[in-house]
Amino acid sequence: MAANERYYDRALTTGDPNMRWHFNVPDTVGPNDAFTFTIDYYSVNDDNAPEVSGFDLTFFVDGQQIGEMQPHTDDNLAAAQSWDFTLDDLGGVAELGPGFDHYVEVRSQSTGSARWASLDYAKLDITPGAIRDLIITEIAVDPTNDNVTFSFQAKVGEVYVVERSTSLLPTGQPGGWLEIEDFLEAESEIQSFTDFGAASGNEKYFYRVRVAEE
Fold first, then answer.
1. DSSP output for 121-171
2. pLDDT in tens, 60-80
3. Which is the CATH superfamily of the domain at 11-127?
């Protein structure tokens, strides 16, 4: 085009409060690449200018909510809103390429006297190799009580989430990743965790650890 547009010609409104963007994930994307979706307002139209108005925003990836609601108001118009997610949220490496349709969605609820909010821009960034898997350094089974204990490299004071799977499939699918501990605060650089009685059955378990979201 001859010149840049002043803003993205889309808006959140009280009558049409949701927006959805469809895309394919290139097969060059790897499991350690991080995704960030960002939107920013160009302007907010409201009925009462002195009142702080805007929209509360909730973000979804392929129908699953990511993170918590984020307010975006006209008193801080320049503050862009971003959400981080991973390839696992898009079905993992099995759903790369042109044959798989994915989407991100922003759902909104007006606050104050907001009527609509024009968007300045919307973008999806992919940062290669940004996700560093935590390394499990040791794992053992106690035959006297079937407890499974493993250790991993950690940062003292950091809070971690422990997940378990029988199939390595994404969360929500059969045998997919399931949180079994949502607040494990590291007390040393090699932190241990025990899954009590996990070895009592015949199932094979996989474990992974990640830093808890703030």
1. EEEEEEETT---PPPEEEEEEETTTTEEEEEEE--TT-EEEEEEESS-PPT
2. 999 999 988 999 998 888 888
3. Galactose-binding domain-like (2.60.120.260)
